[in-house]
Amino acid sequence: MHAQQQFDVIVVGAGPAGSSAALRLARAGLRVALIERGEYPGAKNVSGAVFYAPGLLAELLPSFWEDAPFERYITRRVLTFLGKDAALSLDFRTRHFATPPYNGVTLLRPKFDRWLASKAVEAGALLITSTVVDDLLYEGERVIGVQCRREAGALYAPVVIAADGANSFLAKKAGLQREFSPEEMSLGVKEVLRLSARTIEERFNLTGDEGMASEYVGEATGPVKGGAFLYTNRETLSLGIIVQIASLARQRVKPYELLDRFKQHPSVAPLVRDGVTLEYSAHMIPEGGWQLVPRLVRSGLLVAGDAAALVFATGIFLEGMNFAVASGLAAAETVLEAHQKGDFSATGLAGYQKRLEQSFVLQDLRRFRLTPAFVNNERLQNLYPELFCEAAEQVFRSEGKPRKKLGPTILTTLRRKVSLWTLLRDGWQAGRALFF
Amino acid sequence: MRFAVCLKQAPDSSSVYVDPISGEVDTERFVQTLNAADACALEAALRLKEQLGGSVFALTLGPDESEEALRVALAMGADTVERIWHPSAVNWGPMTIAAALAARLRADSALPDLIFCGEQSSDWASGTVGPALAVYLGLPQITGVIGLKAGQEAGRPVLQVTRRLERGYRERLLAEPPLLLTVHETLNEPRYPSLPAHLAALQARIAVCDPLSLPGFAAVQEAEETTVVEVRTPRPRPHRIPIPDSQLSPFERIGEIITGGTARRQARLVEGSPEELARELVRFLKERGFV
């Protein structure tokens, strides 16, 4: 074995999980190989790209916000129920999210991933781009390296961190992850539209570097289960739809038709008017939540980020990058510990699971484990948004006739389509999923 | 044989966005890679080296980031690489760049037998550096190479070169080194390096040469250098529409304008006996009002 092909740790995938792990490990003086299949980090991924809790980076990169390529910091969150011709929104804004390290920021992943990987390279990690990892190398039960899709493509290390993204082949090949069902997977289709910074600020009522993250449910995706998003970048908008694959197949709709439909909705069209499409992309998202989280460790291998399905999609919260960074850092700490003890067995790496259980990563996923079923509730997806809009219309309608009080107005509208019993049951489900 | 290849780290064309109204290029979205035509030039040199023996020297003129191009060259199989740079080179035009490359190549004891350049870069696409370099070195040159084979004649290597000309024409040439070739990006498919070569290249130290210290180098005078007057996106080419005959009815004139006059060029093939053909011809001429 050539010494050049021997490392202390191999990290597969230079996304937020992989690069933050590589950065932490390289800082500690380990020989790190960071392998990326794209021509550069960020070339291959698709992300709506709001990074919540970016403060996680502060531990490694103090005052990172001064040079990180962030687009806008989120001070405005909107959740909209979309009916056919109407929209009912919950619109929240606060100045409290406007100070570094910020509560959430929008970013463009090609830029951000390159930046984060460049920090790992500065710390001494070896970034190997344009290289696909095809398989793991074993010695008995132990993972001892990876096989790259290049001539003489074996690389060796006592421990490998698989951060190879959604639909991780490595996690499956290592027998940690099962095959997915189409109910657990979503398809994200996204466009980046160009508008001037001034237009964005005026249209979305923002000043300076403030940004907005807006999510939609209901008519946004027609009869298909899913939602839509619209985020503001500095001079572009990221917008797209996220739809459940099983439902997409059942309804026989083309995803780009859904995206067009969303863009043409009367309450969305004026927001995206005159936007020039710069990018169009699509990717699978593991939205199965807690159920989809695989075994995270085997002898010589750790799984982090999307590869471990650490995606927090609950309708109200749509987070993934913070989970990726936190799991990458936890994996790095575990690898450092294993190097100190010289124990890379599953027991030696078990600290990883423990670290994630103590952090928000697994706690949030477990606490909100009922949300995937709730979010995919047929009525929440296709009936309630329309009904909420109708109820709002009844409340706000002025016809010169005597009004009822709000309670009866709303209840009669709702009960025209749903029985009180179903309403209570769905209310209970929502409560269990999100509130208590 | 000794081969030299001139490379440029240039924007990946898929990452370039030009604002259609202002004509400004969005530099934030740029991704720099080894220029596609230059990669083909390098591949061509490596294939000839494998066939004829020798060594390949790859050089580039550019800032720190251009090292990437040389690392690709090393991984693919270049024997030596060198980066030429001086901060003042930011403002150099293609003629001065060619002069610097020429000075560097002349600094060695003998000139390379074959020099390869990409035909043009994906950013400015002036196609000037290669030809200018040939002139500065006093070498014959063949531009727009899309086919290349090497053979031997009386113990000397002879190149069979296919050139791309305008309007789909091709030119076949026989040439003997020393020579400079500028290569079109369809010439070949550059190789995908092995992992050990890739790793070694990533970790290699890359020599830097200051062009101002080279003997015989002087920046080209402003008068000779290319000046960029304006950059804009090309307007669509106007479509010529023949002026319709004023004798025609307005309906037919509008028909001619919206069909671009193509109705005129319609051909009809008539078959039959000579009598039938003559009758058909007379009928046609009458119908159109000629007789």
Considering DSSP H and I runs of 4 or more, what fraction of the residues of chain A is helical?
25-40%
Give the strand tally of chain A. 20
Strand content of chain B: 15-25%
Separate helix tally of chain A: 15
Shape of chain A: globular
What labels describe this entry?
heterodimer, A: 436 residues, alpha+beta, FAD/NAD(P)-binding domain, D-Amino Acid Oxidase, Chain A, domain 2, 3 domains, 9-stranded mixed sheet, 6-stranded mixed sheet, 15 helices, B: 291 residues, alpha/beta, Rossmann fold, 2 domains, two-stranded antiparallel ribbon, 7 helices, 11 strands, 22% strand, elongated
Descriptive notes:
Chain A is of the alpha+beta class and 436 residues long. Chain A has 3 domains: 3-69 and 108-179 and 290-369, FAD/NAD(P)-binding domain, CATH 3.50.50.60; 185-286, D-Amino Acid Oxidase, Chain A, domain 2 (2-Layer Sandwich); 373-435, no CATH class. Chain A has 15 helices and 20 strands. In chain A, the strands form 4 sheets. In chain A, strands 3, 4, 5, 6, 12, 13, 14, 15 and 16 form a 9-stranded mixed beta sheet that branches. A 6-stranded mixed beta sheet of chain A has the order 7-2-1-11-18-17, with helices on one face. In chain A, strands 8-9-10 form a 3-stranded antiparallel beta sheet. Chain A starts with 8 loop residues before the first strand and ends with a helix. Chain B has 2 domains: 2-213, HUPs (Rossmann fold, 3-Layer(aba) Sandwich); 250-287, no CATH class. In chain B, a hairpin with a 2-residue loop joins strand 7 and strand 8 (156-164). A 9-stranded mixed beta sheet of chain B has the order 9-8-7-10-6-1-4-5-11, with helices on both faces. In chain B, helix 2 packs antiparallel against helix 5 (195-202) and helix 3 (94-107) packs across helix 4. Chain B is α/β, with parallel strands linked by helices and 291 residues long. The longest helix of chain B is centred in the first third of the chain and has 17 residues, at 36-52. Chain B is 28% helix and 22% strand. Chain B is elongated. Classes of the chains: A alpha+beta (436), B alpha/beta (291). At the A-B interface, strand 7 of A face helix 5 of B.
